[in-house]
Amino acid sequence: MLKDLVQVARQADIAVISVDNPPVNTITAAVRAGLARGLDQVAGLAGVKAVVLRCEGGTFFSGADLGEFNGPPKEAEYRALLGRFEALPVPVIAAMHGTVLGGGLEIALACHYRIAAPGTRFGLPEVTLGIIPGAGGTQRLPRLIGADKALELILGARPVDADEALRYGFLDAVVDGDLGQGGVEYARALLARGRGPRRTSEHSVDPATGTQEIFDRFVAQAKEHYPNRVAPLTAIEAVRASLRLPFGEGLLHEDKLVNGAKTTVESRAAVHVFFAERGTRIIPDLSETARPRPVTTAAVIGAGTMGVGIAVCFANAAIPVTILDISEESLTQGLDRVDRVYQTMVKRGRLTPDEKQRRMRHIRGTLDYTDLSDADVIIEAIFESMDLKRKIFAALDRVAKPAAVLATNTSTLDVTEIARATKRPQDVVGMHFFSPANVMPLLEVVRTPQTSAEVIRTIMELSRPLKKTPVLANVCYGFIGNRMMEGYAREAERMVLEGAPPRQVDSALEQWGMAMGILAVFDMAGIDVGVNVHKANADRYPPDATYYQADFALVEAGRLGQKNGKGYYRYAAGDRTRHDDPEAGAVLRARATELQVPQRRHSADEIVERCIYPLINEGFRILEERVALRSADVDVVWTSGYGFPRYRGGPMFHAETLGLETVLAGIEKYRTIFGPMHWQPAPLLVELVRSGRSVADWEHSS
Ligand SMILES: NC(=O)c1ccc[n+]([C@@H]2O[C@H](COP(=O)([O-])OP(=O)(O)OC[C@H]3O[C@@H](n4cnc5c(N)ncnc54)[C@H](O)[C@@H]3O)[C@@H](O)[C@H]2O)c1
Fold it and tell me: What is the whole-number distance in angstroms between the Cα of residue 312 and the centre of ligand 1?
């Protein structure tokens, strides 16, 4: 087994160490053991004048094994292994391709020379996982390119391409053609020029690149870009040590810092989300024998905001997709919108004009249902109306081929009832995309009691080419995400009626870590959209005269959000910058007076607690009712669909960070102030606090 992972071959006086650990050459314990043996083998070969390190498959090492994160520290092992590469008495060349991340790049930094295929990308994403590069990266990189550039890469945490890597100076050459051969030729050329080993550890950091002023600038930047987090500051401290400490001591200091970082909430949270996202396709109650159906063609009904975004997802995956709309005019508008989506990508350099054309050729429009008869999956994305949706599904039932999956993108309607409009409810499922559908990674997959296992598997698998993170939900009002949104948004709106300026509410939430304050979200989505949902669901809402009344008051005053330049905020035409608007304040105050809402002052803590506690509380109900398969899925929904900070791990992880008793006490505190209508703790939360168990305990035992 180990023999297969790492092989040593010889081309005359050059030894080539090749690693093959599909799919992405993760640096597992077995790979490290294989590399150590490879080095032993190389040491035993006579006459080797240079060593090339490369990987088979789609990429050079894509990074360390996060599965080892919670185990015993591995830094010492990395240190010894990388030290052996660096200490080799002959030149060592890393020949790289694909996406070289984290530990993968750190291995390359320990080699003496670095070359790469065109298109290779390099990055140190550790700070986004709450840690710092821990395999020498914080000590070698500044020695190679200076402390300032090292920090740019470490704090930037985004991959750079080969050209940038050349400019940064940690890459020596870009090599066209076969990389294996290119590595050997590069080695020969070095030898021909009499070049020997070039050990990064023997350099010192240029002090001009690490002045107090430079570090101050990075500290300020880190605080701005990574609020509420310490890993970026720890990384700065580690890089700073590279100027002060000899290399060996610097490595030990890095080791201490990285192991400290691993114990922080932000790193445990980020690792939790990382694995939670990889676990969402595991569905314990689905029969093993249920196989996904192949999806080679698709259709979308409705060429509006969502329909277009969904069609683009299919075209990006090279799955031909037909969009159907009700009139030539709306169809043309939709197809124009597709063009604009791709145009923007071309403008931003993310797509070539040729690729744009190629993708657009996968999308065609129609007004005729019979054009959908060969689609393997049909996704309905028309207005949120049960009557209309049922009509569409009845029509689909007539034209869709047997075994086609019939999906709805509804946000709130009962998928079971929609399915009843067909004679094949087993083939009906919810596919709840988020706006913009071609950008947002979350896909809630909503099953009804009738949805077949095969259909669920089909959609869970289809989400791979569509590049979505699927989370399975049982049908209920709002599914997982929007159902939890209810209390969160309700409190935000209630607080503006109590006199909190919209900006105060949004800022408190944003400073806490939400990607965007909820009132700004409503302005962006259209406040009227929410109001229509509230009206359609009035019969299920609690008897609270103030319920979502901020939204109602604004819409009644003609304030629909960004679309007409005024909502909770005011906007200049074509500009999304939020401006405080006294007129909005007056509308909200008038409604509060009318409803006799007592005015109060709000601290940032109160704002966050009143929004986040109901969110968590509903999460517990969702778990108890088995709407979600597991609490990690709830966390994925909120981190990938609603801008909940990954460094807090999602609402359920955050609840455990706060302590369940703290959450319960908080809910009870607000129940005392505002009454029980909205502040009833979920029975599961109460039970866990009473029995002193964690969510994980409950999940294992139930
Ligand atoms: N906009 C969002 O943020 C969002 C997010 C998730 C889910 N959704 C859901 O997605 C669905 C679509 O929302 P949207 O925002 O894209 O709406 P939209 O108003 O932008 O688009 C609806 C499209 O459907 C077309 N249409 C209407 N009746 C039709 C019919 N009978 N046959 C064919 N086409 C018809 C319209 O012409 C229009 O192009 C709704 O169910 C909504 O709840 C919306």
Answer: 15
pLDDT interval class at 454 (50, 70, 90): very high
User: Which CATH number covers residue 93?
Assistant: 3.90.226.10
Index of the ligand 1 atom closest to the CA of residue 307: 16
Q: Is the dihedral of CA 75, 67, 636, 340 positive or negative?
A: positive
In a domain, 429, yes or no: yes
* C-alpha to C-alpha distance for 178 and 97, rounded to whole angstroms: 11
Q: Is 446 in the pocket of ligand 1 (CB under 6 A)?
A: no
**Owning domain of residue 329:** 298-476
Q: Give the number of domains in the chain.
A: 3
Q: Which of 207, 237, 263 is the last residue of a domain?
A: 263
Ligand 1: which of 301, 306, 396, 417 to mutate, most ligand atoms within 8 Å of CB?
306
Measured from the CB, is residue 435 less than 6 Å from ligand 1?
yes
Q: Which residues of 604-615 are buried (b: 16+ CB within 10 A; e: fewer)?
A: eebbbbbbbbbb
Any ligand 1 atom below 6 A from CB of 525: yes
Q: Is 395 in the pocket of ligand 1 (CB under 6 A)?
A: no
Mean pLDDT of 341-369: 96
Q: Which residue out of 310, 382, 516 has the highest number of ligand 1 atoms within 8 Å of its CB and is therefore the one to mutate?
A: 382
pLDDT on residue 62: 94
Q: Cβ(677)–Cβ(542) under 8 Å?
A: yes
Distance 238 CA to ligand 1 centre (A): 51
Asked if the model's pLDDT at residue 141 lies above 50, the reply is: yes
**Domain contains 647:** no
Residue with more model confidence, 454 or 540: 454
Q: Is the pLDDT of residue 1 over 60?
A: no
User: pLDDT > 90: what percent of the chain?
Assistant: 95
The contacts of residue 456 (CB under 8 Å, 6+ apart) are 283, 286, 290, 429, 445, 447, 472
What's the start-to-end Cα distance of the chain, in Å? 38
What pLDDT, in 10s, does the model give residues 226-246? 999 999 999 999 999 999 999
The pLDDT tens digits for 62-96 are 999 988 988 889 999 999 999 999 999 999 999 99
Q: 410: Cβ below 6 Å to ligand 1? A: yes
Residue 330 in contact with ligand 1 by CB distance below 6 A? yes
Regarding whether 91 and 105 lie in a shared domain, the answer is yes
Count other Cβ atoms within 10 Å, centred on residue 329.
9
What are 641-678's pLDDT values in tens digits?
999 999 999 999 999 999 999 999 999 999 999 999 99
**Closest listed residue to residue 423, CA positions, set 393, 446, 448:** 393
